[in-house]
Amino acid sequence: MSKNDEIEYIQTVARTESVPVDTFSDYLARKPFSDAKCWEYLADFAQILAQLPVAPARLLDLGCGSGWTTEMFARCGYNAVGVDIAPDFIALANRKLAPGLDLHFKCHDYERSVPFGEFDCVVIFDALHHADDPSLVVHRAAEALRPGGTFVVLEPGAGHSTTADSIGVMEKYGTTEKDMPFSFFSPFLCQAGFTNVRQYLRVRQLPLVNLATAVGPYHQIQHATGLCFEVAQNGLTSLVVAQKGDGKDPSSPE
Asked: What angle do CA 132, 138, 143 make, to 5 degrees?
């Protein structure tokens, strides 16, 4: 996906799918509530929220799209700044501005240095796998964070780029759909100076079974164990959390 494809994404989808731009824009503006997978988006958001420092804190949402996550962070008490490369997305996001919300949107390429001050936390929600250079985006996140700040990334893992859905959107819209397993991008975190790097299951992927049966608890344990193994061995989609180091050499005396 070229930068121009990213910038023109809304126009491209509307043209390819033969729907009015206003119709597609309205769907994006009402996301996640306009989407059949609303519960999945909300589950992901809740899992990210649980990893953040307590509000109020200054939060940067990189690759925010139409801004629904940024708005929800602001409604949770954060001073939230959403960044996206596409002016059309930022125009939609700006509709969410409201009195009393500490909410801001900027049109900016997340592979460039972020000139909007220092942040307590940076979030990338399913946007790193669209980057031309994911390692550069991770470095930009580190630059934007204060020492000790929190970085939260939720991304698809191995096999994402070869699914039928991914192949379809790449062919139709020119999007970049990369595999982003933990083993691939965790070295970028270390190179950018992050410490205390943790990987968690993407909770909404955990198959749930009826526990009110004789075998239900056993099957639930099997599902949980199997998913943990798959994430660890094959890099399935997961949530990753890290802290920005203070830049000090731990071996040197105080």
From this structure: 125
Is the Cβ–Cβ distance between 85 and 109 less than 8 Å?
Answer: yes
Tell me which residue has tokens 């460039």: 112
Asked if 91 contacts 9 with a C-beta cutoff of 8 angstroms, the reply is no
Q: What contacts 121, CB < 8 A, 6 or more positions away?
A: 52, 53, 57, 58, 59, 60, 78, 145, 149, 150, 151, 152
pLDDT recorded at residue 195: 96
* pTM reported for the whole predicted model: 0.90
Q: Please name which of 81, 28, 78 lies closest in space to residue 49, comparing C-alpha atoms.
A: 78
Does residue 252 contact residue 196 with C-beta atoms inside 8 Å? no
Please provide the distance, in angstroms rounded to a whole number, between the alpha carbons at the two ends of the chain.
Answer: 47
Token pair in block for residue 64: 């925010």
Which CA distances in Å does 125 have to 170, 172, 249?
Answer: 19, 23, 31
What are the phi and psi torsion angles at 183 (to 5°)?
A: -65, -25
Residue 132, classified by CB atoms within 10 Å of its CB into exposed (0-12), middle (13-18) or buried (19+), is: middle
Strand partners, 59: 80, 121
How does residue 252 score in pLDDT terms, banded at 50, 70 and 90?
very low
119-125/238-244 β-pairing: unpaired
Contact criterion met (CB below 8 Å) for 137 and 122: no
Return the HEC string of 75-109: HCCCEEEEEECCHHHHHHHHHHCCCCCCEEEEECC
What would the two tokens of residue 140 be? 């930009």
Residue 134 or residue 174, greater confidence = 134
CA dist 222 and 141 (Å) reads 37
16: its two tokens:
């390819």
